């Protein structure tokens, strides 16, 4: 199997738009939180609508209006509106959907996602193209690691898989010539930092 032909797949599978839903699904699978199944379903629907289906609809709108040219590639100018939209939707999710008291781990995960969106937008204003893919996958990997510590779960294989996926996503972005090494490093740093800060206060 030619790995170079497979690498671009990681840019689609781990696109930033899917990260919030991945994190939510992972949380409900491994956590031992005693909540009603109806609340789990409602949370998944809310997360799916605000972080996946609505953003995808807006992406197609942006593409039709010529604001964005591609789902996985975007220039600095094309990043501004999608990042602002992402930050607003995550704020709405934090404000009206995810409860700090009921689901504190998810609340801090989304708070980290909101913070990373703001930091990525600041990078755009500074005319720096931090990798959104690395922000997303590193946020998810850090969340998996933090959750394993918090819940005292032996998720060694899952953590190792997360690290492997981070490497594949980085390789994918380099292979597709979407980012430079420094853009990947900064993106990874933002993703990790945005999660670690809030996990520090929670743990």
Brief write-up:
Keywords: Membrane, Transmembrane, Transmembrane helix. This is PAP2 superfamily protein. The chain has 203 residues and is mostly helical.
Mean pLDDT, to the nearest integer, reads 88
**Shape type:** globular
Roughly how many Å apart are the termini?
43 Å
Structural class by SSE content: mainly alpha
Instruction: Tally the helices.
Output: 8
The profile of the biggest β sheet is:
none
Residue ranges: pLDDT <50 for 5 or more in a row? none
| Number of distinct beta strands | 0
Care to describe what's here?
Keywords: Membrane, Transmembrane, Transmembrane helix. The chain crosses the membrane at residues 12-35, 41-69, 81-100, 106-125, 155-175, 182-202. This is PAP2 superfamily protein. The mean pLDDT is 88. The chain has one domain (3-202). Helices cover 78% and strands 0% of the residues. With 203 residues, it is mostly helical.
Q: How do the helices and strands line up, and which of them pair or pack?
A:
Blueprint: H1 3-13, H2 16-30, H3 37-64, H4 76-97, H5 104-125, H6 132-150, H7 156-175, H8 181-202
Helix pairs in contact: 1-7, 2-3, 2-5, 2-6, 3-4, 4-5, 5-6, 5-8, 6-7, 6-8
Question: Which short descriptors sum up this protein?
Answer:
203 residues, mainly alpha, 0% strand
